[in-house]
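Our preliminary data section would be incomplete without showing what the modeling component actually yields. Below, a chain of 496 amino acids is followed by its predicted structure, encoded as tokens that our downstream tools consume directly.
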Amino acid sequence: MNISAPRLILCFCFSLALGVTGSTATRAPQIWDEAALADWATPIASLKVRPGHYSAAEYYAAPSDNLRTYPVYRPDREPPGYWEWLQKQKPEPLVDVTKIRNPQDWIAAGARAFREMDDPSTRSGDAALIARARDAETFAGVPGLADGSVFQPRWVITDRGLMLSNLDCASCHRTVNADRTIQYAAPLATIPTDGPVGAANAFRLGSVTRPFPGDTAGAVFKRMFDVPWNPDSRLERFFTLTRAGGVFANPHGVIPRPNGSPLYGTRVPDLHVLRYSRYIDATGTHRLRGPEDVGRYAALITGADVMDFGPHRMLSDEQRKLRYRHADEVLYAIGAYLLSLEPPKNPNAPPADLVKRGEDVFRREKCGACHPKPDYTTGELTPAIGFDVPFDHPNFGDVRDRSVGTDPGLALRTRKGTGFYKIPSLRGLWYRPRLMHDASIVTLEELFEPARLDPDYERKGWSPPGVTRGAIPGLEFLTKLTPEDKRALIAFLRSL
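Predicted structure:
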């Protein structure tokens, strides 16, 4: 049996961490661990403090959730007897630790959890909604997936009976293939909508105000995006909205997440290359030291963010109460799964001679200084323009002291503002639908185009609301290559 070195190391580390021996069942490590949390987050550049977090006591006081979910089918494509069978089922764990014996079992459990884990805050047992899920009219114009199911909502069986719910991780981290199958953990081409696969809008199981009870849409946006220590007057118009409207709607796979900003995009990442990083998030907000850190981050973005930044508290006392948490075994399994992934190979690789020439250009231009093989990244951080890294910065050892000149807004003017961008892996570039940390570039050819540096450039990728023209800075040296070198280097990048 031939096992790759990274996979072998991964399995070995899992075995050491979990004490897996023979066929003995195991358990997940504690995800919300105070010692690990102490130096997990990167300090906010303009505050010079790490974001706060719930204590372990607060976190584990919340009820644990670990429930299996089931697909909703178009009524005309539903397998015979499925509805009757579903109603007879009892609550089952999404991740059953009694069936886990080895690292491969954790990875398999994590793959399923990533695909099926739902957002408990969206669950509803409303009889009218359930009837709608059984009505063919609901799915008019929605062809669904190849197996006859829709992407979401999902059925979930709880101790309160059968409910409908929306997906959690998979809601954003997936792409739909031409054959109407799903590639999970892939970069998102567009924001999740009904599209060809789902019927989520017919159910409206969640809303922008759900995680922030008692707030209007504008108040929610203020809690999500306001940076009181570095205010931006352009955000004020969002803070007075009475409904969400189209703030989150865009065609470029960019969703303003809490602590981010509608003014500075954050591309939904390709999780197939997560294993090559030392940090999580575009601005390197948190260290990545193993599956537990992936699980912690999943917990953070699914409700366990206290949103404290030094003296600044973004949530009310009521909103600070953690209402649920995903079970440690679910989060750990997802971490194990994501760190096992590799990006797919390009099935239509460019001509070998052109790739070879492109590799020569790559070497000549010293691209390997930041993107060395085989991972094509050092996994380090690079400072945003305008950020002087202090010598006593706790992440100083991971900083490559060279900025590539991309827009510094996300890294300096948001609550994700660490002052850094992480150096991404170039593997899998051939199938990513958007480039740059903000999805402002749509193709490799555009990245190499000098016209994008023009202040009157007609932007093709993500832009702030209301903006259609403007320069896309960063990596300017790529625009200065000869046409022949550009073509060759693009071919090489598409071969990785």
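The chain has two domains: 5-338, 352-379+423-493. The chain has a mean pLDDT of 90. Preliminary results of this kind motivate Aim 1 of the renewal.
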